[in-house]
């Protein structure tokens, strides 16, 4: 949709060289000249797409516990099944159908021999196979190419009829009622009949049990190409930034939209209608919605085909699957849908995008000649030679131009559904735009060549970068707030099939894609999404900050509780220490009173020592001191021994041991004094050495054993 004009000064000799260089770079003759190959190894490696296809088959069969691997493909152990359907490896070497995938999902009751017979009755051997199935109801969505009924419409195939009948299993819960089969022919009826002259045609409902034939009337690839050209010309002519440098406001005398020349305005609007693009988009939407309604509401099976089964058929079955299965409306599921229905089942991306491709005969590059006026390339020889008949394209210049925006048209349909159901899709319109740009950039190898077989022959997975890995890396940088994510996505709102009514299927021009070059300001339809995305990001940041604050508050609270517990423990220890100090004080007072009652002088020093002086004779004799220190460990009180010790220094002056009043008083008070009058020193906490001076240093425990308490001496 972008038109770039190069201007040269007069008599410039470089015009031809620049033109040839642009043509050589934009439309290379060989596939190896594409940027995906010429740029060298990419850090976005591409895993084997066959593995991803098998994983999708396993999901459809309800075998999600199985995971595909390269070894499983090599040894052929991927042929799993459930009670209704199975995976066949008949086309593992692409001998039956070169444009079909290596693994096919088919009814379990049909053998591989019958499949091989049925393939000969369909165009390009594209026999009916299952592309989507509902395990709960047993309904299937199948695809194929047109049957080869001939000009008389009387050719039949028992194998094909059995295969199609196997798609219509009995309805669950009913032993006799068989589900209905709809055969949806995407072409107009007259085109289907005209194909009979070239060996093709359409089915007869009389040959297929309980079936109904429906024609959707969707035009061929050439009509789509011409429609897009007219749409591009309309946007370029009436856009705000046209390729000729003239704004639409300056056309037709400056009154195109100014209000005076309504005839020119009507003419320009009719030009949009004449392009036919929106009509074609509506036809694809209506056909897909009809198919989805038959499968969802009637539990019917639908077989879809056109002429070759890789353009209109792919559009219809993939869009119907998107409506039926919520998984395909996620980013991961959308990737699986594109890889299954578009890449694996052989949509000719190289032919439709005007890129070079490979021949069907080998892995060597097949050089294609440039077209003089159309700027595209001819179809690959494999598609012209395979099958029983040639394409239905008329013998005009169309036969040399197979470019057509089929995939672009399908993505446009997806954007219309995204507009109708903004809560149902995980991806945004920006994701679809980046997908289309990446396909045409030739930067990745996912959409090169025309089939799975050709991509395998060219070694695309090993040589080129992967688009899906690149887009996943982009999303990983910004997390859930990347532009690819739809900020309004709520899967719980649409967890079932989407069945849009016919009145809602009125498409509009896709602004993010079609208007981004011609009308840049008006194409910013995603501003609301961006603002919502920023608000959601800000809300998440605030919520995260709140959670961090709550965590810090909890941590602070726990620390405070721990400190409170420690403080309480310290209070208990302090109280215990105070009690011990109080008890020691009382004991000291009791001892003091006891010694004073004996006529002793008691002096307590500042460090807790006590000096007791007893004097019975005015004449002092030399003193001799004896010190005892008795220590007893405190049981868990945590109080220092220095506080619990009571040091007492006693000085005794005596002439005669027998006449010393201390001896007499000691003998009368000592509870350990024997009847014989003997002293049990040092257990009695006293000492007697005749008339000598005795110095005694005892601690609190020594006085404890004296049993001198308040009960002997009342406190003052």
TrEMBL record:
Keywords: Coiled coil
Biased composition annotated in UniProt, kind: Polar residues: 383-396
Coiled-coil region(s): 525-566
CDD domains membership: PTP-MTM-like
Region described as Disordered: 361-396
Catalytic residues (UniProt): 306
InterPro entries for this protein: Myotubularin, Myotubularin-like_Pase_dom, Prot-tyrosine_phosphatase-like, Tyr_Pase_AS
Binding site for substrate: 220-221, 306-312
Pfam families: Myotub-related (PF06602)
Gene Ontology cellular-component terms listed: cytoplasm
Compositionally biased region (Low complexity): 361-382
Biological process annotations from GO: phosphatidylinositol dephosphorylation
Occurrences of domain Myotubularin phosphatase (ranges): 62-514
MF terms in GO: phosphatidylinositol-3,5-bisphosphate phosphatase activity; phosphatidylinositol-3-phosphate phosphatase activity
Matching PANTHER family: MYOTUBULARIN-RELATED (PTHR10807), PHOSPHATIDYLINOSITOL-3-PHOSPHATE PHOSPHATASE (PTHR10807:SF8)
Protein name (database record): Phosphatidylinositol-3-phosphatase myotubularin-1-like isoform X4
Organism: Coffea arabica (Arabian coffee)
Recorded name of the encoding gene: LOC113730721
């Amino acid at each position: 949709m972008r038109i770039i004009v190069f201007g040269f000064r007069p008599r410039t000799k470089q015009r031809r060289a620049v033109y040839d260089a642009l043509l050589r770079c934009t439309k290379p003759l060989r596939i190896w000249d594409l940027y995906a190959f010429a740029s060298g190894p990419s850090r976005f490696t591409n895993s084997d797409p066959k593995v991803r296809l098998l994983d999708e088959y396993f999901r459809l069969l309800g075998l999600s516990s199985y995971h595909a691997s390269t070894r499983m493909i090599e040894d052929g152990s991927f042929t799993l099944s459930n009670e209704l359907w199975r995976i066949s490896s008949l086309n593992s070497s692409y001998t039956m159908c070169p444009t079909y995938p290596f693994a096919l999902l088919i009814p379990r009751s049909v053998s591989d021999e019958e499949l091989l017979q049925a393939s000969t009755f369909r165009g390009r051997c594209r026999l009916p196979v299952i592309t989507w199935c509902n395990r709960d109801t047993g309904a299937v969505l199948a695809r194929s190419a047109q049957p080869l009924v001939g000009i008389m419409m009387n050719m039949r195939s028992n194998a094909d009829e059995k295969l199609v009948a196997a798609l219509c299993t009995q309805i669950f819960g009913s032993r006799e009622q068989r589900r209905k089969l709809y055969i949806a022919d995407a072409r107009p009826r007259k085109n289907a009949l005209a194909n009979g002259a070239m060996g093709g045609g359409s089915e007869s409902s009389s040959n297929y049990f309980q079936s109904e034939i429906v024609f959707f009337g969707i035009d061929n690839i050439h009509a789509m190409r011409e429609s897009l050209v007219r749409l591009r010309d309309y946007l370029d002519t009436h856009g705000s930034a046209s390729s000729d440098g003239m704004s639409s406001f300056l056309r037709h005398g400056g009154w195109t939209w100014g209000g005076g020349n309504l005839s020119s305005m009507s003419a320009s609007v009719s030009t949009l209608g004449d392009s036919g693009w929106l009509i074609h988009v509506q036809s694809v939407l209506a056909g897909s919605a009809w198919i989805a309604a038959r499968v969802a509401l009637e539990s019917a099976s639908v077989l879809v085909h056109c002429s070759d089964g890789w353009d209109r058929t792919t559009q219809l079955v993939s869009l119907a699957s998107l409506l039926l299965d919520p998984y395909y409306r996620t980013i991961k599921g959308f990737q699986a849908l594109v890889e299954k229905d578009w890449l694996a089942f052989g949509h000719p991306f190289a032919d439709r995008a005007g890129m070079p491709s490979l021949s069907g005969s080998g892995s060597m590059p097949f050089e294609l000649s440039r077209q003089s006026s159309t700027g595209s390339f001819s179809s690959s020889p494999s598609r012209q030679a395979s099958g029983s008949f040639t394409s239905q394209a008329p013998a005009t210049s169309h036969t040399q131009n197979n470019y057509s925006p089929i995939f672009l048209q399908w993505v446009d349909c997806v954007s219309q559904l995204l507009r109708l159901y903004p809560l149902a899709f995980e991806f945004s319109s920006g994701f679809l735009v980046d997908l289309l740009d990446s396909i045409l950039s030739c930067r990745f190898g996912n959409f090169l060549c025309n089939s799975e077989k050709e991509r395998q022959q060219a070694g695309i997975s090993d040589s080129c970068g992967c688009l899906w890995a690149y887009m996943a890396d982009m999303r990983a940088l910004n997390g859930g707030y990347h532009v690819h994510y739809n900020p309004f996505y709520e899967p719980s709102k649409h967890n079932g099939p989407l069945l849009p009514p016919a009145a809602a299927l009125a498409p509009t021009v896709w602004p993010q894609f079609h208007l981004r070059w011609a009308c840049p300001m008006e194409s910013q339809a995603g501003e609301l999404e961006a603002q919502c995305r920023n608000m959601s990001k800000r809300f998440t940041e605030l919520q995260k900050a709140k959670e961090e604050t709550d965590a810090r508050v909890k941590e602070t609270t726990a620390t405070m509780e721990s400190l409170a517990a420690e403080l309480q423990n310290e209070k208990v220890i302090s109280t215990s220490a105070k009690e011990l100090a109080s008890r020691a004080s009382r004991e000291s007072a009791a001892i003091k009173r006891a010694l004073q009652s004996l006529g002793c002088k008691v002096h307590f020093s500042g460090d807790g020592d006590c000096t007791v002086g007893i004097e019975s004779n005015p004449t002092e004799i030399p003193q001799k001191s004896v010190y005892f220190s008795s220590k007893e460990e405190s049981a868990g009180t945590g109080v220092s021994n220095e506080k619990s010790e009571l040091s007492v220094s006693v000085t005794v002056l005596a002439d005669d041991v027998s006449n010393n009043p201390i001896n007499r008083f000691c003998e009368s008070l000592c509870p350990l004094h024997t009847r014989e009058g003997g002293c049990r020193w040092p257990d009695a906490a006293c000492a007697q050495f005749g008339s000598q001076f005795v110095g005694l240093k005892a601690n609190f425990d020594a006085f404890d054993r004296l049993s001198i308490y308040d009960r002997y001496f009342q406190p003052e």
